Amino acid sequence: MATATPAAVRKQIQSGTPDAIYLLQGDDEVEKSALAAEFAELVDEGLRAFNVESFHAGDWTTGDRLADGVASIAAAVRTLPMMVPRRVVAVLQAETLLAPKRESEAATRALDQLEALFTRAEPQTTLVLVAASVDKRSRMFKLLQKQATIVACGVLEDQADAERWVRTHVAAAGAAIEPAAARLIAQRAGPDVRRLRADVDRLLLYALGQKQITVDDVREVIGPAALQDDWAMTNAIEAGHAGEALRQLALILDAGAPAEKVLGQLGWVVRAKFPALAPADVRPAVDALFRTDLDLKQSGGDPRVLLERLVVELCAGKRAAVRRW
């Protein structure tokens, strides 16, 4: 049928006009779980026990279990809603359901029944399939492309999405955050999921033991200068401040910058600045750059560790030059 963003699906839920079948997929488990849970809002809270059902397909690893599970799902989908216009049926870990690991006669029958369920959707039931990843070449995925709305979770469109993402992930970690603090994080990072995840993880660690993450916490941990100045790391190396250079390196990597781009920045500071700042250390610095470049290309270690070692070496050379002067 179509593809949709989580934000678009939320608008459908709020307006009470959902599609018949959804496939929620992607690597963002928290976002998928949160969005799947929001479908329950289609049913009045007092009647959800009769009209909202969930299944976990993760242990349906044999043909017989798969057949029994699909039969249960089909029965739930075909059941008429009680005292409300619509039922909701959610299937978690649906990748096991959509692409069985073992072929058997029972598994084939189950897939045939599932195909019939997808092809002749029940208009009074919304079926929500939640999967980590589904083989796009599989029979079921190709059918869902025609019959279902496919939602990629973890893709954000704007600051409002980013702010909602922050609140959801903080809550999933068992913590709380001030609305203004969540808004500030979203303003800093925008709809960049990798950067948001890094910022939230760092905040959760910083605020461990606190009742609530505050705006002051956000300003302390992800201040604007550190996130907006792309050259803060190289400036710290020029000054010989290893601690600050390492902190800026962590912010750059946590924001999703590729190791190769960071190495290019470090190469620039050696070529452009070291001949004047530390002429005796140009050759060792160049050797260190080449060694790190080779290690990165040959997977000779964790890229973060390799870059941290290089930054420390460059700062040490600069400090030695300062002492000589």
How is the CATH topology of the largest domain named? Rossmann fold
Strand elements, count: 6
Mean pLDDT rating: 87
- N→C terminal distance: 70 Å
Secondary-structure element series: EHEHHEHEHHEHEHHHHHHHHHHH
Helix content: 55-70%
| Assigned CATH class of the largest domain | Alpha Beta
As laid out across the biggest beta sheet, the strand order is: 1-6-2-5-4-3
Tally of individual domains: 3
CATH superfamily grouping of the largest domain = P-loop containing nucleotide triphosphate hydrolases
Q: Please name the CATH architecture of the largest domain.
A: 3-Layer(aba) Sandwich
Provide the β-strand percentage band. 5-15%
Describe the structure.
- The chain has 325 residues and is an alpha/beta fold.
- The protein folds into 3 domains: 2-152, 3-Layer(aba) Sandwich (Rossmann fold); 159-225, Helicase, Ruva Protein, domain 3 (Orthogonal Bundle), CATH 1.10.8.60; 234-324.
- Helices cover 60% and strands 9% of the residues.
- It is built from 18 helices and 6 strands.
- The protein has a 6-stranded parallel β-sheet with strand order 1-6-2-5-4-3, sandwiched between helices.
- Strand 3 (52-56), helix 4 and strand 4 form a beta-alpha-beta unit.
- Helix 8 packs across helix 9.
- The protein is elongated and about 80 Å long.
- The model is unreliable at 319-325 (pLDDT under 50).
Quickly list its features.
alpha/beta; 18 helices; single chain; 3 domains; Rossmann fold; 6-stranded parallel beta sheet; Helicase, Ruva Protein, domain 3; 325 residues; disordered C terminus
